[in-house]
């Protein structure tokens, strides 16, 4: 189920870009997201199909110097507790277009691509996308709703 939520959030690869409804998470973070784009997404709640390719771009400004950055994704389905989604490439400095270290107060954009697993369908979830420093400090976290149809 976690893989389904993760895949749904990342299914953002297409020719059209839309800024889904998103917000910075309610956590103490050492930065702030300023823009989130998902491809393909054509509505405030992104809808994806199993097997679809997705691209995600998160533009953010860290408030602190960041030596390294790890990606942590969690999905919450209905009233169940958020579940962690394990990523194949969780090192944001190596696989996302970022060059670490990141300077404080400079805007950067994190990029990722993935394919929604074929076994995911008929799911609505709240996805929490965390970028965490190697010193275990949340640099940025965004929250958005996704649907796998």
Features:
149 residues, 3-stranded antiparallel β-sheet, mainly beta, globular
Number of helices: 2
Global outline: globular
Helix content: under 10%
Beta fraction of the residues? Answer: 35-45%
Structural class: mainly beta
Q: How widely separated are the two ends?
A: 14 Å
DSSP strand tally: 9
Order of SSEs: HEEEEEEHEEE
- Alpha carbon gyration radius: 14 Å
The stretches of 5 or more residues where confidence is low (pLDDT under 50) are 1-16
Give a short overview.
With 149 residues, this protein is mainly β. It is 9% helix and 44% strand. It has two helices and nine strands; from the N terminus they run H-E-E-E-E-E-E-H-E-E-E.
Description:
By secondary structure, the chain is mainly β. The protein is 9% helix and 44% strand. The strands form two sheets. Strands 1, 3, 5, 6, 8 and 9 form a six-stranded mixed sheet that branches. Strands 2-4-7 form a three-stranded antiparallel sheet, with helices on one face.
């Amino acid at each position: 189920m976690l893989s389904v939520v993760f895949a749904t959030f990342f299914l953002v690869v297409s020719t059209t870009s839309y800024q889904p409804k998103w917000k910075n998470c309610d956590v103490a973070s050492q930065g702030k997201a300023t823009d989130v784009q998902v491809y393909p997404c054509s509505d405030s709640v992104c809808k994806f199909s199993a097997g679809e390719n997705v691209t995600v771009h998160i533009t953010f400004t860290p408030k602190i110097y960041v030596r390294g950055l790890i990606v942590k994704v969690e999905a919450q389905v209905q009233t169940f507790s958020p579940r962690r989604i394990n990523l194949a490439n969780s090192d944001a400095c190596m696989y996302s277009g970022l060059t670490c270290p990141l300077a404080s107060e400079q805007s950067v954009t994190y990029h990722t691509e993935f394919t929604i697993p074929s076994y995911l369908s008929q799911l609505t979830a709240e996805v929490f996308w965390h970028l965490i420093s190697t010193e275990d400090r949340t640099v940025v976290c965004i929250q958005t709703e996704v649907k796998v149809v």
